[in-house]
Amino acid sequence: MAPISRGRPIFSSTILHFIILITMHFRTLSRFLFMSLCSFFSCSTPEGLSSLSAGEFSTLLNQKPDLILLDVRTPSEYAEGHLPKSVNVDVLAPDFEQRAEAVLGKQRSVALYCRSGHRSKQAATLLSRRGIQVYELSTGWLGWVEAALPTAR
Q1: Which of 57, 31, 43 is nearest to 119 (CA)?
Q2: How confident is the model over 131-149, as pLDDT tens digits?
Q3: Mind listing the pLDDT tens digit for each residue in 31-44?
Q4: Helices (H), the chain
Q5: Closest Cα partner for 141 from 153, 130, 129?
Q6: Which one of 39, 48, 74, 92 counts the least CB within 10 Å of its CB?
């Protein structure tokens, strides 16, 4: 039988920090989980949403140079590298829809991407429900880099 350690707290400081972190970010985490479940159980593509490969997305950006390009990853991911001329609006932020609308202004179409394509589908669903035509990079940043297309820092 292992001896009982005396004087040692029941919860280690790592677990306590984890609990504090979860509590502080509950709203963001609950939004992410809700949107993940919605996208998981959704069988159809929302109206006004086009999901494109890296090559198709590149062609679209060249054909429509005035199209606003949103990077919906976190600011730290954006700082590591992004598509040229993109604007960072984190889809996990509680005010995502308002910030995206502010960036778009009166423009009713947008191109967007995330790291792998999951979060951009969530953002695309939210924006297309507002009547915005959305072009989404299905393979995300990773697919763009794999296709050796231009990037910026």
Answers
A1: 31
A2: 999 999 999 999 999 999 9
A3: 665 655 555 544 44
A4: 13-24, 26-41, 54-63, 75-80, 96-104, 118-128, 140-146
A5: 153
A6: 39
